[in-house]
User: What shape does this take?
Amino acid sequence: MLVRFWGVRGSLPSPLSTPQVEAKIVDALLGAGGVDLTDRAAVEAYVRSLPLRVRGTYGGNTPCVEVRTAANDLLIFDAGSGIRSLGSALMQTEFGRGQGLAHLFFSHYHWDHLQGFPFFAPAFIPGNRFIVWSVDGRAEDILTRQQEEPTFPVPFAGMGATFEFHSLAPQTAMCDGRVRVTYALLDHPGTAYGYRVEADGTTFVYATDAEYKKIDEEFLAAYGDFFRDADLLLFDAQYSFAESQLDKRDWGHSSAAIGVEIAAHAGVKRLVLFHHDPRTTDDELLGILDSAQQYAALVPGGAACDILLAYEGLEVAL
Ligand SMILES: [Zn+2]
Ligand SMILES: [Zn+2]
Assistant: This one.
């Protein structure tokens, strides 16, 4: 299984500001001593050698994650603004010829997980087929409502591709049995669902937009095997631990520290911190990662878990 990240930011698309870009340019130039700045190839090689926080950004698009199986089955999780870029990439494939098939899942219908859909080019191409899976049966109604006048000029029903809406059972096999999906109800305002995807002998858990008020054996037992032994756990780490427990309690989001606790408890191999807060800068994200890694070293079982920051363009092969 291959997992690709197209949108990793929570709440609202959050492009870099000019002062933030300027600060990155300053950092790059301060490190450029010895580089021949008149030689384009040398400059390009230097830029490629820089860390992501200097040469780019972790990303400002809202959630969209692509999952590919070894048989090239395509599963898409959430349609935040990141799905526009995924759509552009897919248009270079069979989706550009109206021959694509994808399975689409929504964690929930808050706008940051839905707002990119009207800009998803393959949805406008007749012949493409999208199977939309949901637990609550509301996806068709909500996609339709998002594109009603006056908020978007093209109605959902006029998008061109074929959409099939299916209900997820507690365990659902799809893609001719190559993929098995289970779900968990997450604690989030208005509810959200997490998805556990098993394919190719590996497991990916998509669990964004969730709050975990106390982590004890009884609480974790309520999730059963949902997180158990995942090869990759995508986790809502929007807030600091203090925010998640104090002034942003009941806002429906979690922290890297809670992710470490759950990952260590469940034997997760890799934890990816996701749904970054719009306020959090690239440098601050690195601080969150560093703290999470230090904390993992102290938690029983935590040292065995690899911790990553989600960024646009990240690919994780399981
Ligand atoms: Zn969200
Ligand atoms: Zn939400």
